[in-house]
UniProtKB/TrEMBL annotation:
Binding site for substrate: 53-55, 90, 199, 250-251
InterPro entries the UniProt entry points to: IF-2B-related, IF-M1Pi, IF_2B-like_C, Initiation_fac_2B_a/b/d, M1Pi_N, NagB/RpiA_transferase-like
Family indicated by similarity: Belongs to the EIF-2B alpha/beta/delta subunits family. MtnA subfamily.
Reactions catalysed: 5-(methylsulfanyl)-alpha-D-ribose 1-phosphate = 5-(methylsulfanyl)-D-ribulose 1-phosphate
Signal sequence annotation: none
Keywords recorded for this protein, A-Z: Amino-acid biosynthesis, Isomerase, Methionine biosynthesis
Name of this chain's protein: Methylthioribose-1-phosphate isomerase
Organism this protein belongs to: Candidatus Methylopumilus universalis
PANTHER family: METHYLTHIORIBOSE-1-PHOSPHATE ISOMERASE (PTHR43475:SF1)
Length: 355
């Protein structure tokens, strides 16, 4: 995708040095910065502090973490230890576990002498597959938009960031919008700020702006009001994990938007790769681990100061405690359709398609 007119991915390889480069998303939207990652420890840290984020991108980055581990020590114990440490970095996003399982399955039968080379090659494959997957999601989502909406200017609401910054390229929930924009469809996007980390304000608004897509930032609590006023035609979000019943785990606040959309007869779409579908989650999906992040994310806010420097300011009284769950779960009854790289399905169809 474009950054100031230049093509970028969120992650790319430097094969000459066997390192990777990432866009540091903690600096956006005020500073566009890239940085190299050289080791397993650096990958784990980048995932933990959300220099890389979004379920698909986390999975791709974690795969490279395994490759770095194999470069230093290609033993079975090293592979198991690296997988365990990476899994603990962000346990809710199922793509992370999916990527680790794939790396382990393909590397375990290989002799230790050949594991690094095989791991590096597999990482490149996973990276390329992510781009193709997101392109397919975009095309299926475009068909859904074209076949179900006939209006001069579509009004679309999205929550958090499920654009190209959450993947290697194109994105999940925003991929259909990029395809729609390229085809000349007239639409406008309401962008939830997405507290407490403000991924909507910092990331979605930034990347939509890079592509000159009309959008307006709103407070998280304004979405229901817009729906009541008839200012939203459909909602589209990504997902970090989807159960076989079509229940959706996504950024905190998604559930409230889904309920509001349901109450106002507004379609609520979820776009995600099929690797996000938790095939073990056939029941008790509400018992999955929900990541609880540091309370400072709620008590503090990041922005530019008068010297054009990134800084954190405290927005709550000293001594205030905060609870900071990163995700919530939207029951399948509130989900209209789920868009994957294979097609568009009702929640009830997932079990028959992906069992």
């Amino acid at each position: 995708m474009k950054v100031n007119g230049e093509d970028f991915q969120t992650i790319w390889l430097d094969s000459t040095e066997s390192i990777i480069h990432i866009i540091d998303q903690t600096k956006l939207p005020h500073h566009f910065t890239t940085k190299p990652l050289h080791s397993l420890d650096e990958v784990i840290n980048a995932i933990k502090i959300m220099e890389v984020r979004g379920a698909p991108l986390i999975g791709v980055t974690a795969a490279f973490g395994i490759a770095f581990a194999m470069k230093n020590n290609s033993s079975d114990d090293s592979l198991k230890d690296a997988s365990s440490r990476l899994f603990q970095s962000r346990p809710t996003a199922v793509n992370l576990q999916w990527a680790l399982n794939r790396m382990n399955k393909e590397l375990m039968p290989i002799t230790s002498e050949k594991r690094f080379e095989a791991a590096w090659s597999l990482c490149q494959t996973i990276l390329d597959e992510d781009i193709k997957t997101n392109q397919s999601i975009g095309k299926h989502g475009l068909d859904l938009i074209e076949n179900n909406f006939n209006k001069k200017t579509l009004q679309i609401l999205t929550h958090c960031n499920a654009g190209w910054l959450a993947t290697v390229d194109y994105g999940t929930a925003l991929s259909p919008l990029y395809y729609a924009y390229n085809k000349g469809i007239d639409f406008h996007v309401w962008v939830d700020e997405t507290r407490p980390r403000n991924q909507g304000a910092h990331l979605t608004a930034w990347e939509l702006g890079q592509h000159k897509i009309p959008h307006t930032l709103i407070s998280d609590n304004a979405g229901g009001h817009l729906m009541q006023k008839g200012e939203v035609d459909f909602v589209i979000v990504g997902a970090d994990r989807i159960s076989m019943h079509g229940d959706v785990c996504n950024k905190i606040g998604t559930y409230l938007k889904a309920v509001a959309a349901f109450e106002n007869n507004i379609p609520f779409y979820v776009a995600a790769p099929k690797s996000n579908i938790d095939r073990d989650a056939t029941k008790n999906f509400f018992d999955i681990p929900i990541e609880s992040r540091h309370e400072e994310e709620v008590l503090m806010m990041q922005g530019l100061n008068s010297n054009n420097e990134l800084t954190n300011i405290q927005i709550a009284p000293k001594g205030t405690r905060a609870f900071n769950p990163a995700f919530d779960i939207t029951p399948h009854k509130y989900v209209t359709k789920i868009i994957t790289e294979d097609g568009v399905y009702s929640p009830q169809e997932l079990k028959s398609v992906y069992s």
